[in-house]
Amino acid sequence: MTTKSKPAKKKAAKKAAPKPSAPKALKAPKEVSISKRDLDAIRKKLSEQRSDVLEAMRRNRAPEVTSDTGDEADQAQAAMDRDLQFELSDTERNTLDQIEGAIRKIDKGTYGACEQCRQPIETLRIRALPFARYCIRCQSGSERAVTATQA
Ligand SMILES: [Zn+2]
After folding, report:
1. How far, in Å, is the centroid of ligand 1 from the Cα of 121?
2. Residue 121 neighbours by CB distance under 10 Å
3. I need a labelling partner for 106 at 20 to 30 A (CA). Which of 71, 73, 127, 143 fits?
4. How confident is the model at residue 68 (pLDDT cuts 50, 70, 90)?
5. What is the distance in A from the centroid of ligand 1 to the CA of 25?
């Protein structure tokens, strides 16, 4: 009777390399909690809004002098008319600026932060007003100041 006792295979001791315990971020950086997916959606929405505004501006513009006149004076006049039209649509221009500013910020990765206090703008606010530049507190800062003096 031969009982060959198999020596238990020596387990390759898995040496768990002690991972340098990453310091727990106690102070979570005030980061904007907008996911990339949300950002993409917002960016798309902003682009669409921009096109809408541009389209509206174009429609509001007086019909342009066709370029086949070839007359320099006419072209200058047309350019002036165009400038005038642009001036007239101040609100649209403003909106356009805000939209483009927001798109730029998305590209720069600073989107969602209040331009004044650098705190993240409330998600609900972002949803309602994708090109908001300030958080609610800063936006209503003047109102608060008024109430503060009253108190
Ligand atoms: Zn703010």
Report:
1. 7
2. 24
3. 143
4. low
5. 23
Ligand 1 centroid, distance to 12 Cα (angstroms):
57
How many angstroms does the Cα of residue 72 sit away from the middle of ligand 1?
A: 50
Give domain limits for the chain.
Answer: 36-62+74-143
Residue 101 in contact with residue 131, Cβ under 8 Å? yes
The highest-level CATH class for domain 36-62+74-143 is mainly alpha
How far apart CA 139 and CA 31 sit, in angstroms, is 19
Q: How far is the CA of 133 from the centre of ligand 1 (A)?
A: 9
Task: Give yes or no for residue 150 having a pLDDT over 60.
Answer: no
- pLDDT beyond 50 at 126: yes
32 touches 112 (CB < 8 A): yes
* Cα 126 to ligand 1 centroid, rounded to whole Å: 13
Least confident of 3-12, 32-41, 76-85, 115-124: 3-12
pTM recorded for the entire structure: 0.54
